[in-house]
Design goal:
The complex is a heterotrimer of chains A (299), B (468) and C (283). By secondary structure, chain A is mainly alpha-helical. Chain A folds into 2 domains: 1-29, no CATH class; 39-286, Orthogonal Bundle (MetI-like fold), CATH 1.10.3720. Chain A contains 13 helices and 2 strands. In chain A, strands 1-2 form a two-stranded antiparallel ribbon. In chain A, helix 3 (65-96) packs across helix 8. With 468 residues, chain B is α/β, with parallel strands linked by helices. Helices cover 48% and strands 12% of the residues of chain B. Chain B has a 5-stranded mixed β-sheet with strand order 2-1-3-11-6, sandwiched between helices. Chain B has a 4-stranded mixed β-sheet with strand order 8-9-7-10. With 283 residues, chain C is mostly helical. Chain C has 15 helices and no strands. Chain C has helices at 5-36, 41-46, 59-65, 72-103, 109-121, 128-138, 145-152, 157-168, 172-180, 185-196, 198-214, 217-222, 231-236, 247-274, 279-282. In chain C, helix 1 runs antiparallel to helix 14 (247-274) and helix 11 packs antiparallel against helix 14. The longest helix of chain C has 32 residues, at 5-36. The interface between A and C is large, with 104 and 106 residues.
């Protein structure tokens, strides 16, 4: 009796995930398999793929200096952009979840950068802000701070792109806002009655309660960070001196400027492996720290 | 594991796919349209003999059947003015050929090549396609993608220079495209800037006087720069002109088999480039590079603080749109003292007809009409730089439709044309290697002699890889 | 939020000051864009000053007309036809699938879940060609089906995983209580979990709306006919790197294209912020 109910429930589970399963088989499996297969070929889009074994992978690892360069750039970018963006988004979300007068307008204003996406205006504006004689440097000059070559120096340009990415923190913020609203109010009340400080409440109630979304945000921003090249594509083109040459930009160039689709496929499976390992490590270290109302993933 | 499950999944997946595509074919008129040319071709084959020439407006010989409906897709890139002119030309043509529908697929340059290559991979490209000749090596790999235009009776080749067609419009000796316009090359200057610094815009700079003048200009006003070149243009705007004017040939052998320059020549060139980019009156490369392919957006250009940049004549419109037509003058690229002056030229863009087209007669008739008919030539004007076809150009000049700077820029290139660049010079991978090295040189992150050595090594090995 | 206001007036003022300062930084690009829509090219590129010296007044009107063949009426309509179904199906399908993953146990659940996340890890560039070939074979090119149909099948794992995380924040006791009350599993999903998950649903809606709205590369490859272009393509249609562009018109249209997303966010934020009061979760 119990067993059959469990069986029935497990069948229902399959039914609910069926759309995804079908979508995977119809729309995703073929491209995934195809790109994996391409990675062992020389495939220049026009013309048919030619099997060359592991040589794409070997070339990438042994002879492609730009691969290592772009990998280093990407790691730097992710290490800077993800924490900054998450902390900023959480900070703003906490402020914006208060009942302030005009809070709706504030929230919208803070979300607008994210609506921009890679808008055509972004590149023009970003140049105006960050060029040698740009707005940011003029403001710094008012404060007697020497001007910074924001986009023209190989040492700083990546940081400027990090700012662009942090500026578009809206989607993380929205998720934090939603998560903050799911925290039961009586938990806060109980804590306040116990005389807990704000800091204590944040670390011991807010953070654990939003930890599923926090971990989601961190993971997604990380995955996204490894695959992001909007900023370098639109603003710096990867320069100066490849200092903003993200691996995803290299991948795009190999695939769609040089049309070396086989090579690009190999590159993206290497990138896949890297992100996969990081994700796995992330799960290993966070699974204990994330608090799930539903009692956690029993499997 | 669980094979049966998987098979049943796959079957249901296929079923759903079938259902969905069936819905689509019934419900969407766009699918119907793409089917249309295929149907018309089936009927056309049999009845093209019965061509009736009812048409009076179009002077060229008309071989296509005038009663069978034909739909052709025409894909090009450009800005608003080119879109408008081309649409208007299409309207004129289809008004005279009521059976022909030409579906315009237009966009800007961004993503155009990506889209085209993707379409070709799926055999879904347009019938008539505007191309850049530098893509030919990539396209050649696919085999016969485009009609051999020499074999088409509709095409009148009398107005084109044979060597130009051979150099820029053919793959392996097959004429697969026609030039839509000729690009001249040279300095694009700001008149006000030249007046401010009492410089003569009609002078031809030598590579040395360029540096001297830049220093002078910057000494007069530290916010002023004589020249700005961004890093992705280093190859075409500095490196190649410098080599051409000093040595009279390209950096690659004509058959693209190896680097033609010696290590000494390269070292000398790189030394000059380092000197050039550390000159105060040349905009620092890092700043200039914020305006990759968008130099007209450089604030110093808009503010009359930039003397000139180097570019192709097809881009004149964007430069004058910022500083005004009256404020723009053009001139020859820098020369070397006592060297020969060779000025690059190239087709601004070429046009091809897909091998897969259902109505080759109509497609070729249309492109021939666009490039030679006076009415079409007037409508299209200099939207693709000046027409390459000499009759068309003569007509445009007669009616005064060619602006002075454009005329001058193309003329100076035609008077002393540089030889056509070797095929692989424009290959995207080779040019990336060159461009990366030149950037490092200009930023002084490598010494000229090391760079010269690296240049020869890496270009040669890439060429070997590409030709194997 | 029942803070004694008197104690915090100074604090509130500070908060407002901070919010306004940062808000202006956030909004600056939009403000700049609006003003720039009235500038001729030379002014636009010559300085960052906001006010135009020689204002161009017709940029919105002329921009709307576009190249003449199709106006922005067509492009806006197209974008809605593309975006709305995509958003609707994404929210439906991903919430159902997430429900399946978070509330049921079945064989291979763990590997399948890993697959959900796994499909996010491969960069998109190399999937473009095979996907294109697939849609070509299905005959879906030059339609919006390559966007809409995958949305029906929850093909963007981001949303599945996001919904799973939200479902996990809801006590299972709620489902069990509803089941005892006689709800079947679908009713539990629809009547119990969906209302509580409104914040997540609306977040997903907003994200998918904006991402699809801004997507350039997808429509670039899948849509050939200009009459089917969405805004993202239309805006870039005249920005050729070799030719002059009427930037004020492009910026004017860019401003307009930001409006739907902004309005959507503004009007729906109460659902994800003030949504169902947290008390309801306790049931």
């Amino acid at each position: 009796m119990r067993l059959s109910a469990a069986k029935k429930r497990s069948r229902m589970g399959y039914i609910y995930i069926l759309p995804w399963l079908l979508g995977l088989l119809i729309f995703q499996l073929y491209p995934l398999i195809a790109s994996f297969a391409y990675s062992f070929t020389e495939y220049r889009v026009t013309g048919s793929p030619k099997f060359i074994g592991l040589s794409n992978y070997l070339t990438i690892l042994k002879n492609d200096d730009l691969f290592w360069q772009s990998l280093a750039v990407t790691f730097k970018y992710v290490l800077m952009a993800v924490p900054l963006k998450i902390i900023f988004a959480l900070f703003v979300a906490i402020i914006l979840s208060q009942k302030l007068r005009g809070i709706n307008w504030y929230r919208t204003a803070y979300y607008i950068p994210s609506i921009f996406g890679g808008s055509v205006a972004v590149s023009i504006l970003w140049r105006f802000l960050f060029m040698e004689d740009g707005l940011v440097n003029r403001i710094l000059a008012q404060l007697n701070i020497p001007s910074v070559p924001w986009l023209s120096s190989p040492h700083v340009a990546l940081l400027t792109l990090v700012f662009l990415s942090v500026w578009q923190f809206g989607s993380s913020m929205v998720l934090f806002l939603a998560a903050l609203k799911q925290v039961p109010e009586d938990l806060y009340e109980a804590a306040r009655i116990d005389g807990a400080s704000r800091r204590h409440i944040f670390w011991h109630i807010t953070l654990p309660m939003i930890s599923p979304i926090l971990s989601f945000n961190v993971l997604m921003q990380m995955i996204n960070g490894f695959q992001d090249f909007t900023g370098s594509f639109v603003i710096t083109g990867g320069g100066p001196l490849h200092s903003t040459y993200m691996i995803a930009l290299k991948l795009y160039n190999d695939a769609f400027a040089h049309f070396k689709m086989g090579y690009a496929s190999a590159l993206s499976w290497i990138l896949f492996l890297i992100i996969f390992l990081i994700t796995a490590v992330f799960f290993k270290f966070t699974s204990a720290a994330v608090y799930y109302e539903d009692g956690g993933n029993r499997k | 594991m669980n094979k049966r499950n998987r098979i049943s999944m796959a079957v249901s997946a296929l079923l759903i796919t079938g259902l969905l595509s069936a819905c689509n074919a019934g419900g969407s008129n766009t699918t119907a349209q793409t089917i249309a040319p295929a149907q018309s071709s089936a009927t056309e084959g049999g009845s093209s003999e019965a061509a009736t020439s009812l048409d009076t407006q179009v002077s060229m010989a008309e071989t296509a059947d005038n009663s069978t409906p034909v739909t052709l897709r025409f894909m090009w890139w450009g800005g608003d003015s080119r879109h408008e002119a081309t649409l208007s030309a299409i309207d004129t043509y289809t008004a005279a050929h009521p059976n022909v529908t030409i579906e315009a697929e237009y966009q800007a340059m961004d993503g155009y090549q990506q889209k085209l290559m993707t379409q070709i991979s799926g055999g879904n490209q347009a019938d008539i396609i505007q191309l850049d000749y530098v893509w030919f090596p990539d396209l050649a790999r696919q085999g016969d993608l485009f009609l051999d235009l020499k074999a088409q009776s509709n095409i009148d080749l009398s107005g084109y220079s044979e060597s130009f067609l051979a150099d820029y419009c053919s793959i392996n000796g097959t004429l697969i495209s026609l030039p839509m316009g000729t690009n001249g090359f040279g300095l694009i200057m700001n008149k006000a800037f030249f007046e401010k610094h009492s410089l003569d815009p009609s002078q031809t700079f030598t590579w040395d006087s360029l540096i001297e003048t830049a220093e002078k200009v910057n000494a007069e006003d530290s916010g002023d720069y004589l020249m700005s070149i961004e890093s992705s243009s280093l190859t075409g705007m500095i490196f190649e002109p410098y080599i051409l004017s000093n040595y009279g040939y390209y950096w690659l052998t004509d058959d693209s088999s190896a680097v033609r320059l010696t290590e000494e020549q390269l070292t000398e060139t790189f030394t000059y480039m380092q000197k050039l980019f550390s000159t105060p009156g040349i905009q620092p490369l890092g700043e200039a590079s914020l305006f990759a392919s968008q130099m007209e957006q450089n604030p110093i250009w808009a503010n009359n603080q930039l003397g000139f940049t180097i570019d192709w004549s097809g881009t004149l419109g964007k430069y004058s749109s910022v500083i005004g037509e009256d404020n723009l003058v053009v001139g020859k690229p820098p020369v070397s003292e006592g060297g020969q002056e060779l000025i690059p030229t190239k087709p601004s863009m070429v046009i091809s007809v897909s091998q897969l087209t259902s109505a080759p007669e109509v497609a070729t008739d249309f492109i021939n009409w666009m490039l030679t008919d006076n009415q079409a030539v007037e409508i299209l004007g200099t939207q693709r730089s000046v027409p390459t076809n000499t009759n068309a150009l003569a007509h445009l000049q007669e009616i005064g439709a060619v602006s002075e700077p454009m005329s001058q820029m193309v003329q100076q290139s035609m008077d002393q044309p540089a030889p056509a660049p070797p095929a692989l010079a424009a290959n995207s991978e080779v040019s990336e290697i060159v461009s990366n090295l030149l950037e490092e040189v200009a930023y002084k992150s490598v010494t000229p002699s090391d760079a010269a050595q690296q240049f020869i090594e890496s270009v040669n090995s890439k060429i070997q890889e590409l030709q194997s | 939020m029942t803070k004694p206001h008197t104690r915090h007036t100074g604090r509130m003022l500070l908060t407002h000051l901070f919010m306004i300062t940062f808000g202006l930084i956030m909004l600056y690009p939009l403000i700049w864009m609006v003003f720039s829509a009235f500038k001729p090219n030379d002014e636009l590129f010559s300085s960052i000053a906001l006010l135009p010296k020689r204002p161009v007044w017709d940029s919105f009107k002329a921009g709307w007309r576009g190249t003449g063949q199709f106006t922005y009426t067509t492009f806006f309509k197209n974008t809605f036809l593309l975006v709305l179904p995509t958003v609707f199906f994404t929210v439906c399908s991903s919430s159902i699938v997430a429900y399946g993953f978070s509330r049921f146990d079945f064989r291979f659940k763990r590997p399948l879940l890993m697959l959900v996340i796994g499909t996010l890890l491969l960069p998109g560039s190399v999937l473009v060609i095979p996907r294109y070939l697939l849609f070509n074979r299905l005959g879906w090119l030059n339609t919006y089906l390559p966007f809409i149909v995958p949305a029906m099948f929850a093909c963007n794992s981001f949303f599945i995983y996001m919904m799973i995380q939200f479902f996990r924040g809801i006590p299972k006791a709620l489902d069990e209580a509803a089941t005892l009350d006689g709800c079947n599993t679908f009713q539990v999903y629809l009547l119990v979990l969906m209302p509580i998950c409104k914040p997540a649903l609306f977040s997903a809606m907003i994200f998918q709306f904006i991402w699809t709205w801004n997507d350039f590369f997808g429509p670039l490859l899948y849509i050939n006919s200009v009459k089917l272009y969405p805004i993202s393509l239309a805006l870039r249609m005249s920005l050729d790197s070799t030719m002059a562009a009427n930037w004020n018109q492009v910026l004017a249209m860019s401003v307009l294209s930001l409006l739907p997303g902004t309005i959507l966010f503004f009007t729906s934020q109460r659902y994800f912020v003030d949504g169902v009061s947290a008390g309801a979760i306790k049931g």
